[in-house]
Specification:
The protein is an alpha+beta fold. The chain has a single domain, classed as Electron Transport, Fmn-binding Protein, Chain A (Pnp Oxidase, Chain A), CATH 2.30.110.10. Helices cover about 15% and strands about 35% of the residues. It has a seven-stranded antiparallel beta sheet with strand order 3-2-6-9-10-5-4, with helices on one face. A hairpin with a 4-residue loop joins β4 and β5. The radius of gyration is 18 Å and the shape is globular. The protein starts with 9 loop residues before the first helix and ends in a 12-residue tail after the last strand. It binds flavin mononucleotide (FMN). Flavin mononucleotide (FMN) binds next to β3, β5, α2 and α3.
Length: about 200
């Protein structure tokens, strides 16, 4: 099969790309509008650089063309916490993508508890094994006519559950199998870690 993008409808192209670009990590992003906490998953998400510790999220618009709450909250309050969800959280992750009436918190809707992350201005999800406290670096619409905003965040605080990490010779090692991260596949599918193989690099 071979298709020119110009021959595909936008919806078909989207469906094709989300099945081809897999597995995608999931950023489970907690923000605040100043009154209520907001939580939503984003799988067009990537690490950008280690120094500075920058990451990027691609946030589309709501069906009515208005900005998603996550974007509006990050733009007005500058901070967000990005969690890495683990196996078993797929139902809760999906629930937090529901469009809720204004003023109803997704953390309550999905029955999730939050706890403080040191003195960071937002709390983290209690049960997520990794939480990255981030500050907005910049938000860009990269192309005219694009309904997507790229949000770049600088990681300021890192929480890793003790049970999945240990310090070896001054470096923190995260056990990937214990983290057991969820991945996004095409459509409504999730994937899980299937196997790990170490291949040593020549350095
Ligand atoms: C697993 C998963 C991944 C998603 N990835 C994205 C994404 O990368 N970009 C996006 O704009 N929406 C994505 N969505 C949809 C948003 O989560 C959804 O629009 C959500 O309601 C946005 O919430 P908000 O308005 O509170 O920000 C995803 C949904 C799911 C379930």
């Amino acid at each position: 099969m071979h298709r020119k993008v110009s021959e595909l409808k936008a919806s078909s192209l989207y469906h094709l790309l989300i099945q081809a670009i897999i597995p995608r990590p999931i950023a489970w992003v907690l923000t605040s509008n100043g009154h209520a906490l907001n939580l939503a998953p984003f799988s067009f998400f990537m690490g950008v650089s280690g120094e500075p510790p920058l990451l990027a999220l691609s946030i589309g618009q709501k069906k009515d063309g208005s900005p998603k709450d996550t974007l509006a909250n990050i733009q007005s309050h500058k901070f967000f916490i990005l969690h890495i969800p683990s196996r078993g959280m797929e139902e809760a992750v999906t629930k937090t993508a529901d469009a809720l009436p204004h003023g109803i918190s997704e953390t309550e809707h999905a029955g999730l508890e939050v706890v403080p992350l040191g003195d960071f201005p937002l709390p983290r999800l209690r049960d997520a094994r990794i939480a990255l406290g981030c500050e907005l670096h910049r938000a860009d619409v990269l192309m005219e006519g694009m309904d997507t905003t790229m949000v770049y965040g600088i990681v300021k605080e890192i929480y890793i559950e003790d049970s999945i990490s240990e310090e070896i010779h001054g470096r923190i090692k995260i056990d990937a199998e214990k983290l057991d991260p969820l991945f996004r596949l095409g459509g409504d599918d999730f994937g899980f870690l299937g196997g790990i193989k170490t291949v040593k690099r020549n350095r």
